[in-house]
Amino acid sequence: MKTLRFKTNIHCSNCVSKVKPFLDKKKGILSWKVDIEHPDKILTVETDELSVDDIIKTIKRTGFEAEAL
Predict the structure, then answer these.
(1) I want to staple 10 with a disulfide (CB 3.0 to 4.6 A). Which of 15, 36, 43, 52 is the partner?
(2) Number of H helices, E strands in the chain
(3) Which 8-state DSSP code applies to residue 64?
């Protein structure tokens, strides 16, 4: 399993609720969380098979931005 981390513009719980359905149903994501208290709004994803680009594309589809750390 690998842990991928991203700086995002997901800044509140309402934003998290908008990305939740996309991340929950994305095949290959074992778990995920967004630290909205961190200044960089860190998204952490646990996966065995997805790449950084896969996650960035999924986040962009929700209208938010993500940058690999």
Answers:
(1) 15
(2) 2, 4
(3) -
| CA 35 to mean position of chain CA atoms | 10
Pairing of β 2-8 and β 42-47:
antiparallel
Distance CA 4, CA 23 (A): 13
| Cβ contact 32:61 at 8 Å | no
Please give the domain boundaries of the chain with CATH numbers for all domains.
2-68 (3.30.70.100)
For residues 2 and 68, the answer to whether their CB atoms sit within 8 Å is no
pTM score above 0.70:
yes
Tokens of 64: 């938010």
User: Could you read off the pLDDT of 27-65 as tens digits, one per residue?
Assistant: 999 999 999 999 999 999 999 999 999 999 999 999 999
